[in-house]
Amino acid sequence: MELIIESLRKNYGQKEALKGVSFALHQGVYGLLGPNGSGKSTLMNILTGNLQGTSGKVLWNDQNIVQMGKDYRKILGYVPQQQALYPDFTGVRFLSYIAALQGLTSREAKERIHYALDVVELSDVSGKKIRTYSGGMKQRLLIAQAILADPKLLIMDEPTAGLDPKQRALMRNLIVEIASDKIVLIATHVVSDVEWISKEILLLKEGELIRKGSRDCLVEEVKENMDSVMKKDAKELGLEDVYLYYFGEQYDETDLL
Ligand SMILES: Nc1ncnc2c1ncn2[C@@H]1O[C@H](COP(=O)(O)OP(=O)(O)OP(=O)(O)O)[C@@H](O)[C@H]1O
């Protein structure tokens, strides 16, 4: 199981949104961090097949995803940012609708819906209308739809946006559980969401991948680069300090609220 991104560029007219990004992902959770405008959405849109790069390629197990077409869609799950979720549908009706779009047979759909509802702990409320769900429940329903067809690659866009701290913690546990047999890539502004669950963090700045490594390696690097005065003040550094170090004043604390 391998996703390789090779020299990926994307230009919008004169604007270079991605400037030749290369990296490889294997089983596990990866956090994609970057300030507004760094190219995260562009990268996610290319990885989900909604946009084509200007040059470079994306390979799933050595096959170009553009040529894979429908076969790539089969291994891909996408959790979009929270959106209007058919408020008058029940949870189970929404998942049946998604299963039909994905071409699952009714037998497969029944089995997979049962499984997905169980994983995201929504079985009890699956007959209730989505309008009655809390933010956390809606987010878990979005995850359920993304794992219906048992994807090998799961891409998540700000999966904890709008959730309270308890729901965020539940979401993190759920992501770890789901990732046991998948590649999970999470794009977020919320550093704490990916700090402890990611095997690697990717830092995107102005269309370039400036760092990719484990949380501990990135923290250590920043520590080494600090001058001795700052080092003395810095007791325990964390991923937030790494973010601040590379993205400086572009860091917006309101993203954490
Ligand atoms: N359709 C477009 N036409 C022109 N420029 C674009 C277009 N889409 C994005 N851009 C520009 O490309 C750059 C990268 O945008 P992108 O949306 O990928 O960043 P981002 O990191 O996802 O930001 P955000 O977190 O705000 O969504 C930005 O400078 C943006 O203004």
Automatic annotation (TrEMBL):
<protein>
    <submittedName>
        <fullName>ATP-binding cassette domain-containing protein</fullName>
    </submittedName>
</protein>
<dbReference type="GO" id="GO:0016887">
    <property type="term" value="F:ATP hydrolysis activity"/>
</dbReference>
<comment type="similarity">
    <text>Belongs to the ABC transporter superfamily.</text>
</comment>
<keyword id="KW-0813">Transport</keyword>
<dbReference type="Pfam" id="PF00005">
    <property type="entry name" value="ABC_tran"/>
</dbReference>
<dbReference type="InterPro" id="IPR003593">
    <property type="entry name" value="AAA+_ATPase"/>
</dbReference>
<feature type="domain" description="ABC transporter">
    <location>
        <begin position="3"/>
        <end position="231"/>
    </location>
</feature>
<keyword id="KW-0067">ATP-binding</keyword>
<dbReference type="InterPro" id="IPR003439">
    <property type="entry name" value="ABC_transporter-like_ATP-bd"/>
</dbReference>
<keyword id="KW-0547">Nucleotide-binding</keyword>
<dbReference type="InterPro" id="IPR027417">
    <property type="entry name" value="P-loop_NTPase"/>
</dbReference>
<dbReference type="InterPro" id="IPR017871">
    <property type="entry name" value="ABC_transporter-like_CS"/>
</dbReference>
<dbReference type="GO" id="GO:0005524">
    <property type="term" value="F:ATP binding"/>
</dbReference>
